[in-house]
Amino acid sequence: MEQLKTIGRELAMGSQGGFGQSKEFLDLVKSIGETRSKAEEDRIVLHEIETLKRRITDPDIPKRKMKEYIIRLVYIEMLGHDASFGYIHAVKMTHDDSLLLKRTGYLAVTLFLNEDHDLIILIVNTIQKDLRSDNYLVVCAALNAVCRLINEETIPAVLPQVVELLGHSKEAVRKKAIMALHRFYQKSSSVSHLVPNFRKKLCDNDPGVMGATLCPLFDLITIDANSYKDLVVSFVTILKQVAERRLPKSYDYHQMPAPFIQIRLLKILALLGGGDKQASEKMYTVVSDIFRKCDSSSNIGNAVLYECICCVSSIYPNPKLLETAAEVISKFLKSGSHNLKYMGIDALGRLIKISPDIAEQHQLAVIDCLEDPDDTLKRKTFELLYKMTKSSNVEVIVDRMIDYMISINDSHYKTYIASRCVELAEQFAPSNHWFIQTMNKVFEYAGDLVNVKVAHNLMRLIAEGFGEEDDAADSQLRSSAVESYLRIIGEPKLPSLFLQVICWVLGEYGTADGKYSASYITGKLCDVAEAYSDDETVKAYAVTAFMKVYASEIAAGRKVDMLHECQSLVEELSASHSTDLQQRAYELQAVISLDKHAVENILPSDASCEDIEVDKNLLLLDNYVQQSLENGAQPYIPESEHSGLSNISNFRSQDQHEASIHGLRFEAYELPKPPVPPRIHAASLEPSTELVPVSEPSYSRDTHQVETAASISDMGSSELKLRLDGVQKKWGRPVYSSSSPSTSNSTTPNTVNGVTQVDGAVNVNSKTRSTRDSRKPQVEISPEKQKLAASLFGGSSQIDKRATSANHKVTKAGIHAPEKAQAPKAAVVSNQVTVEKTNHQPSPDLLDLGEPTVASTTPSVDPFKQLEGLLDPTQISVTANHGAVGTTESPDIIGLYGNASASGQSSSSEISLTTNRDDVNFTVGLVDATVSTAHAGTTLPTQFPKGLNPRDSLEKDALVRHMGVTPSSQNPNLFRDLLG
Amino acid sequence: MIRAVMVMNTQGKPRLAKFYDSVPVDKQQELIRSVFGVLCSRAENVSNFVEADSIFGPDSRLVYKHYATLYFVLVFDSSENELAMLDLIQVLVETLDKCFKNVCELDLVFNYSKIHTILDEIFFGGQVLETSSTEVMKAVEEISKLESASNSINLVPKSVSGWRGR
Description:
The structure holds 2 protein chains of 2 kinds.
Chain A: H1 2-16, H2 23-34, H3 38-56, H4 63-78, H5 87-94, H6 99-112, H7 120-131, H8 136-149, H9 155-165, H10 171-187, H11 195-201, H12 207-223, H13 232-243, E1 252-253, E2 256-257, H14 259-273, H15 277-293, H16 299-314, H17 319-334, H18 338-351, H19 358-361, H20 363-370, H21 375-388, H22 394-407, H23 411-428, H24 432-446, H25 452-464, H26 471-488, H27 496-509, H28 518-531, H29 536-555, H30 564-574, H31 579-592, H32 596-602, H33 622-630, H34 652-661, H35 678-685, H36 697-716, H37 742-747, H38 783-793, H39 813-822, H40 863-870, H41 881-903, H42 910-935, H43 950-962, H44 971-979
Helix pairs in contact in A: 3-4, 4-6, 5-6, 6-8, 7-8, 7-9, 8-10, 9-10, 10-12, 12-14, 13-14, 13-15, 14-15, 14-16, 15-16, 16-17, 16-18, 17-18, 18-21, 20-21, 22-23, 22-24, 23-24, 24-26, 25-27, 26-27, 27-28, 27-29, 28-29, 29-31, 29-32, 30-31, 34-35, 40-41, 41-42
Chain B: E1 2-9, E2 14-19, H1 25-40, E3 49-51, H2 53-56, E4 61-67, E5 70-76, H3 82-100, H4 105-110, H5 112-122, E6 123-124, E7 127-128, H6 133-150, H7 160-165
Antiparallel strand pairs in B: 1-2, 1-5, 3-4, 4-5, 6-7
Helix pairs in contact in B: 3-6, 5-6
């Protein structure tokens, strides 16, 4: 009786609700579907949460109802709201005996809880029990939960059972048990004793279990290939069997024998064969077999082919296989599908490591990809170009990269590509001038994203020149840098880092060649400091630059006329909140009032690269100390030995020195930027020390030099790869600063010398190219492209060995300069122009189902006619059309629907439209899919029995509306409007 | 390893989201939103691959497929093959289609637990478990049969087709 009642209720609900859920749930989903704003949706969901909170705590809730509540909770959480109040009920549900409820419970907990949640402990017991269940579905459900919920601590509680399940009679259970163990292995090292199990299960007589075992083995082999070399033969045998279709038919996928297993095996072989000739030789036959057998017309076939290429490129090279791989790659690149092009570019990037000249055949295809509107493809192509950069084509490649960098907004990728540009420019720069220009661009457009060290490297480069003893070239470099900066400086909103470089260079070399007057340079600097008045670092750089400019004026014997705005700026800064700025301002004022001789000592011109010799013992003061002692002064007591503070004020400098030795650091004063020597603050803080007399030469000199020292230390510790070996490091001047340990670092660069002199005699090859001009250029290919191709690929059968070590000289630019001059421009080569754009074979592609490629075979029909014909006055549902209309026109219809939903926003019928639309479009998509799969032809026996059946959708649509999901408004009118 | 499976509609509403790493709920929402942001800005007729480093951290790729009003998205790392993942989406959709007969977005909304059952038969703990939609269907049907047998109060089948068939 009770049961009958339930059935009655179900039926009653079915007529209004349907889909097994209550009306409430449907209403919820519907109303959320109708919302137009996030706020509205939130309101509805919050209301729902309130309802559920109230109901779910009710003790006599029927179980079936409870199940629905749990599902509703899951739904709410998927929408991003907190459903934690119901977690405990989901946990309780896992204890239920009914399979349905148990599975629902497990589903909910796996979605709700993470492995560290407190409630896990309540589930472990149930899982243990369920793992021993007779019903294998219960076991599977428990294994599912195990994967998600068991953490390192609870692994031991279930481990024995899971291991036991490896011998279960159902292969589905064995498979899942293997994967659960794999998960354990990923999570904890404590199960490493189970590794032999994986080896054992490789021999399981069910291919599915064997396939599952490949996943953990792949992970294990990735970590340590050597201990699995003995399995090479087994893997090769398995792969052979799979490729020869020895597996049951049910493992076929789109006519390929177990492609996913093949892919996994090829990945494993690639790992095992890497650099191992013996192991690789065992693989050659099977890989070439697969190459031959693979059906390149299906997506999955191409996936296997791609995997073969990856394998070939990572195992010990075999010329024949490489050739086959190259053929496949060219097929990929010539295909019309973006996916295949993408894979082709990726594969090319792998293969050029082994056979560099293969890229040349595909130059035009690569350039096409580079100009493709698809970002993914473009980025992949840049990746490829990065791999094939050498000094002959670096200009073109980096220019392209920078253009692209400017055009995108994605800061993540911008950072990435900026660092790539810097790296390439530093490695392969053909000329100093080009290098500086390139860096300027990078800084200008991505300055906030590049590493600080890049800026320091650039400054150092400009200061040191390129290491040649050619002073003229160096000064030319500097003046061209100064000129370019003076041009750029007016641009609005330059990145801070770039401004720092500009200020530094202008300060150091702005007036060096006499072209610009001191007042002009300082005026510009002043503008910068004012325009970026909230950037203290830039201001600091600007003030120091003033000081250097004026110092060189004084040293040259000219009278210093401080500009009015400079004066006011300096005055303003001397009252700044930043002690660093204050300090710099006072120093500036002090330096200006000095005489020529003193200034030359403090700020010698172009001495930023001098070595700083540290006089740690301050011997220069010995005389002074001696004198003072003779005059009756107290002998110096090291700080550690004295407690009073006041008695040493006379030995100020000594005191400073001590302070630094003891590492007194007053962090609060430290600026974000390094060039502030902490010691100076220490000095100015020392309560007993008298304030530093500003005019005292030694002091201001110190600060300047300390500053340089500090910036050296920055560079010294930089890991960026500005090649400086062979370049005499001559930073700074003798000064005491020992506070930065890296100073010593930077003064001993010669040890690195010669380590990576790889590029010395590299490029002899730029002419080999001309011999390849065998074919005439195709007409379709624009000269620009050819030119680009020539500059990218020309003169290049040899790839510069890229120094992996960080040190690689920029100086080599000198060697490259002449070679580069003759390289790319010489002859436009469209050698091997095999890519004919018109000839692209649009190979039937399973992937792009629903693309118009298939359409050519369907007779094109007037969609509207078809629609009208199909419009059934009673069942008005456009769903009916999808089948008949066919693939050709489906996009139009979808477009129409799109418009409809957009225009119908305000009417109440909107929901009906959208829901219908969902239904229709989705079906259309799928039908397309089936159609095109069928078309893909011979390869695919139609596995889709349903095909083009408008009736199905009609019925379904009617049903949906009947259920009350769709409001009652009349669709026909709507569509009539639409269709005219 | 596969990191996440997502299905969302063209308005960005999540229809199904399963993460195989532990990801807190807020983060999940954020990820779904950013994935949608990337997807909806992509033109048609471009590749189905997206580099997802900026969303999911290093070494992550994303493959998506657009069916009518739905995006199917798989996120995974370099140990998987992109083209194969694309086919896996195909497997998932084929299975859904077999299960619901002309599947549509509504089916996904209303058959939440069933979809998850299907998903669990294809993916397991971030690895691919089964790639034949026939096998998946078999397993799912077996589960539903046993479920309804073990639970007599539940007489309403879970799929439209079943309901209509009566």
